[in-house]
Amino acid sequence: MPQLENFAYFKGINLLKFVEDFPDESSCIDHLKALREREGIACKKCQNEKHYYLKAKDQWSCSSCRFRTTLKSGTMMESYKLPVREWFIAMAFMNYSKKGISAKELQHQLGRKRYEPVWLIMHKIRAAMGKRDDRYKLVDMVEFDEGYFETETKDIDKQNLKRGRGSQK
């Protein structure tokens, strides 16, 4: 089942390029269709991998049992009625800056009235991004820009600790 965890396209793209590549819903659907076909589509009923596409319905039909698979089926977008382009916009905004974007700001950018669906969508995208990041293991020297780490010091009397360099050994 595809997870569409590859956000690499949105990582290196700027806003003008995004608008140029995805001017409307149909261009987003075509891109999603190409991603799904590259990953492979398996029938949920019989696990057959041979399908044909029904353009009028934006669905694939299994060549053996005729079970239909929608464009969003099996992805993080499955149970949401949000258009594909708005999902792509949300992914792009979440990848544009190191600090990301708040759900309130994304709600404003998408022109949505309700906060909760946007918040849920952002969590779906973050979960998919986390699954993608779990596939990689950091080796060698790693440098952090910002971070807060708390550790416990064992077998050291806290009263003997002093401020300054070299006091905690």
List the helices and strands and how they pair.
Elements (H helix, E strand, L loop, with lengths): L7 H4 L3 H7 L3 H15 L11 E4 L4 E4 L5 E3 L13 H13 L6 H8 L4 H20 L35
Antiparallel strand pairs: 1-2, 2-3
Helix pairs in contact: 5-6
Structure, described:
With 169 residues, the protein is mainly alpha-helical. The chain is built from six helices and three strands; from the N terminus they run H-H-H-E-E-E-H-H-H. Strands 1-2-3 form a three-stranded antiparallel sheet, with no helix packed on it. Helix 5 packs across helix 6. The N and C termini lie far apart (50 Å). The relative contact order is 0.12. The N terminus is likely disordered.
Briefly say what this structure is.
The chain is mostly helical. The chain is built from six helices and three strands, in the order H-H-H-E-E-E-H-H-H. The longest helix is centred in the last third of the chain and has 20 residues.
Relevant terms:
169 residues; mainly alpha; extended; disordered N terminus
- Kindly name the structural category: mainly alpha
Strand ordering within the main sheet: 1-2-3
N-to-C SSE string, H for helix and E for strand: HHHEEEHHH
The coarse silhouette is extended
Average pLDDT score: 79
Number of strands: 3
Q: Roughly how much helix do the residues carry, as a percent range?
A: 25-40%
The residue ranges in which pLDDT falls below 50 over 5 or more consecutive positions are 1-5
Distance between the termini: 50 Å
Number of helices: 6
Q: How much strand? A: 5-15%
Rg (CA only): 22 Å
Instruction: Give the biggest sheet.
Output: 3 strands, antiparallel
